[in-house]
Amino acid sequence: MKVLKFGGTSVGSPERMKKLLDIINPTERQIVVLSAVSGTTNSLVEIGQAYLVGDKEKAEVLINALKEKYEYFIKELFAKPEYLEQGKEVIDYHFDLLSNLSKDLFTNIEEKVILAQGELLSTTLYHVYLKEIGVPSVLLPALDFMKIDEDNEPIVDYITEHITPLLNKHPDNNLFITQGYICRNSFGEIDNLRRGGSDYTASLIGAAIRSEEVQIWTDIDGMHNNDPRIVKGTKPIAQLSFDEAAELAYFGAKILHPQSVFPAQKYKIPVRLLNTMDPQAAGTLITNDSEKDRIKSIAAKDGITAIKIQSSRMLLAHGFLRRVFEVFERYRTAIDMITTSEVAVSLTIDDTTYLNEIKSELAAFGSVDIDEDQTIICVVGDFGAEKHGYAARVLEALKHIPIRMISYGGSDHNLSLLLKTEDKTEALRSLHHRLF
Ligand code: ASP
Ligand code: MG
Q: Helix (H, G, I), strand (E, B), or coil: what is residue 147?
């Protein structure tokens, strides 16, 4: 049984929603995961923030504006008055819920309830649409089976246990629709898998039901070998390993939620990235094996801050790195890249919420230098220890650009460089020209 996930733009207009049936084959048993209509989650975030700061008027204005969009949406989606009426009821239900939240105490719990409405709306409206055109389908409530634990980690066994009986209840039904992104947490409250989390939902369901394949349908024909917004002539990568896809998703390729690679990898479920606008295009296939001996792709991640700690006491001292890392751990700040010398260590972070606190604690070890506005360039491919020549080709392409850090050998698939964001465009173009 396949799992197909459609992103926000793929359900972004009534027209697009209707076109999903060009891709979905309703005679095949499958699970379809939908995102919220594009723009909706952003609006819900704003509504939640307005409530959180106590600005009920602003929240009401935002709610009404969003509701208007949906009223227009259903007019285009449904042809028959009775279904338009059903669509209207769906909208009223969800928007009444949003408005009524102003009456009670508003906390993070209510905020997450707000964020969940986008996927609930898109899936319910699509379900009603399928009814109108006579395509049988079953709506599976994600809140009945998607679960995260106290560390926000999804529990695959729980998902298997709870989704299987729901599927078994409908042995003759082919098409199952469910919400991406939303889940319940360890308290049983409504929660979510973070922005872009619908990919993660699809991969988790794929793992939970041991799916034959997970398809992620977006608006680009797979993962490209460089950033198509910056470099001309980029090409989709036909095939990637899970490790390579994880590096790329994390370091900038916006097409895939980084964590979504792991459940598929663990349960060996092939993941295909496909393009709703061009369904025949081959896209990118992610599996356990990978073509050897090739540089596959280049990605970039902006908004990086580099921190250098220089210490004469580091020389000969064991336990020094541990103490440095503990500072970051205390402030729950993840480190992306790290390079060391005998007397100094440089590392990078992208979350600077606690930069000042971190800096002053690190000052106890030695001198601390901060470089902001940095970009990580990540070259992904097959660079096993027995390989030679790849690092030279990468550095040759960048010989005219100042490099702040180089990280190689951390895995067999990644060579990362840190440089100034202002040099990114030139670095991506020059690498593209040299490597492909
Ligand atoms: N609707 C959510 C978001 O915009 C989840 C997703 O689309 O994947 O982040
Ligand atoms: Mg997405």
A: strand
| Complete edge-to-edge strand list for the sheet that includes strand 30-34 | 137-140, 175-179, 30-34, 2-6, 214-218, 271-275, 284-287, 239-241
Architecture of domain 2-218: 3-Layer(aba) Sandwich (3.40)
pLDDT in tens, 15-24: 999 999 999 9
Task: Give start-end residues of each CATH 3.30.2130.10 domain in the chain.
Answer: 296-435
pLDDT in tens, 314-325: 666 788 889 999
What is the best residue among 37, 195, 219, 259 to mutate for testing ligand 1's pocket, by most ligand atoms within 8 Å of CB? 195
Enumerate the CATH 3.40.1160.10 domain ranges in the chain, comma separated.
Answer: 2-218
**Does the beta carbon of 35 sit less than 6 angstroms from any atom of ligand 1?**
yes
pLDDT band at 311 (very low <50, low <70, confident <90, very high): confident
Residues 431/298, Cβ–Cβ less than 8 Å: yes
What are 172-194's pLDDT values in tens digits? 999 999 999 999 999 999 999 99
Q: Tokens standing for 89?
A: 């009821």
Residue 344's Cβ-count burial label (10 Å; 0-12, 13-18, 19+) is middle
CATH homologous superfamily of domain 296-435? VC0802-like (3.30.2130.10)
Residue 314: its H or E element: none
**Helices then strands, each counted (H, E), the chain:** 13, 16
Q: Where are the alpha helices (DSSP H) in 78-132?
A: 81-100, 108-132
Mutate which of 181, 218, 276 for ligand 1 pocket (most atoms within 8 A of beta carbon): 181
